[in-house]
Design brief:
This is SWI/SNF complex 60 kDa subunit. The protein is of the alpha+beta class. The protein has three domains: 62-185 and 263-292, YEATS domain (Immunoglobulin-like, Sandwich); 189-262, Orthogonal Bundle (MDM2); 346-406, no CATH class. Helices cover 39% and strands 21% of the residues.
Length: 411
């Protein structure tokens, strides 16, 4: 069995010219044409915006956030605590009742004020924001042989994210602690060498930002070659850095990378006194950090991926309805023209209509004044036409009529 033919959709939304040119519908036709023009401009704008969003999603999207770092400590086995340690109850094997302290480093990213609940993303663990962390304890190594320097370096392998870090040591004397933190910025920040930074007026920025600053300086100082615009001619300030010879535009990133260094770490100081009760509230530091804007990225992805199919289905449905209305309008216009012609001059209209119907009937039957010379001429050219079963009988009848007329038998 043959598959049923697919139903053809009506896609033409243009009103027939006969209606557009009719003075009776000039106002409505103009309004409809304006709506079609507005729809075309809106479609173009939406397509352009969608392409821009897709292009933006392929680039790193970042935002400035505030990272709050908390430093605190707890103590155990100290003389001032209830049930203080004595030489009689100290267990050297298990470490029970030995004076000790625990230093904690915690952090979290502050929420954006007045942010909608649906735009909030799960908070990131503190360890995911740190590339390297070093804790230095200022103590006498002879008295406290335990390691006084603790380093945590995030490896590329899978690891369990942590909300904070803690360092536990034995002791009951005042200790000064220095915390060195290398934060994970997105995109990565670099320290610009003073030789280049003094020219550009920047001390620290992303690699893209530094390259853009160099390019802005080149355009501001008009350092492009007059003939070959791809060639850069260093001025007196750039010659000690980039050399005296002209260099191509594509070599700018390579030369800029030579003057990018690792950004300075964040250094925090803390004083830990086990002989005193720990403060009730931890010491807090607010630090600016550049993070990936996952909230904005998710919203833009939702616009491109999720909302597009729903909007396309709704628009397709509306287009089908408009096309049906346009087709109905065209049919109604044909009926109206037919009836108006009949009402204005019924006699001429009927005569013209009968002549038209007669010509159509002759075209269908292949008869008429031309005796088929026009419509059947193509059939007469083909030899197969004369081999049809009824041809022999038709020739015999024609010859009989011709002979009868010749002998005078046919009256």
């Amino acid at each position: 069995m043959q598959k049923p033919a697919k139903r053809r959709k009506l896609t033409d939304k243009n009103v027939p010219n006969a209606i557009l040119q009719s003075p009776e519908f000039s106002v409505d036709s103009k309004m409809y044409q304006d709506l079609l023009g507005m729809e075309r401009r809106l479609d173009w704008t939406m397509t352009r915006k969608r392409v821009e969003i897709q292009d933006t999603l392929g680039r790193p999207m970042s935002t400035n956030r505030t990272l709050r770092i908390f430093l605190s400590h707890t103590v155990s086995g100290q003389l001032w605590q209830e049930g203080a340690a004595t030489n009689s109850n100290i267990n050297l094997e298990t470490g029970e009742a030995i004076p000790a302290f625990q230093f904690k480093i915690e952090g979290r990213v502050l929420e954006i004020p007045n942010q909608r609940a649906r735009d909030r993303v799960p908070p990131r663990k503190f360890s995911t924001l740190v590339k390297q962390l070093v804790v230095e304890l200022d103590r006498d190594p002879a008295q406290y042989p335990d390691s006084n320097t603790v380093e945590w370096l995030r490896s590329s392998q899978n690891y369990t994210p942590l909300d904070g870090f803690s360092v536990k040591r034995r002791g009951d004397s005042l200790t000064r602690i220095r915390v060195i933190i290398h934060l994970e910025h997105h995109p990565e920040h670099f320290k610009v060498h003073p030789d280049l930074g003094n020219i550009l007026g920047i001390r620290e920025d992303t690699r893209t930002g530094v390259i853009q600053a160099v390019w802005n300086y080149i355009k501001l100082q008009d350092l492009q070659d007059k003939v070959d615009r791809r060639s850069i001619r260093p001025d007196a300030a750039l010659r000690p850095i980039f050399g005296t010879e002209p260099f191509p535009f594509r070599a700018i990133p390579e030369r800029v990378n030579r003057y990018l260094m690792r950004s300075d770490p964040l250094v925090l100081h803390y004083t830990l006194d086990p002989s005193q009760p720990p403060p009730e509230k931890p010491v807090a530091y607010d630090v600016d950090i550049r993070l990936e804007d996952s909230s904005l990225k998710s919203r833009m992805s939702h616009v491109v991926m999720n909302m597009a199919p729903e909007a396309a289905k709704e628009l397709a449905k509306l287009d089908d309805e408009i096309s049906l209305h346009v087709q109905s309008l065209q049919n109604s216009h044909l009926k109206r023209t037919f009836l108006q012609s009949f009402a204005s001059n019924p006699q001429d209209f009927i005569q013209t209509w009968l002549e038209s119907q007669s010509r159509d009937l002759e075209a269908i039957l292949g008869s008429g004044p031309s005796e088929g010379a026009t419509l059947r001429q193509d059939d007469l050219r083909r030899s197969e036409y004369f081999r049809l079963p009824w041809v022999e009988e038709a020739v015999a009848i024609q010859e009989g009529m011709r002979l009868a007329a010749k002998t005078g038998l046919a009256q």
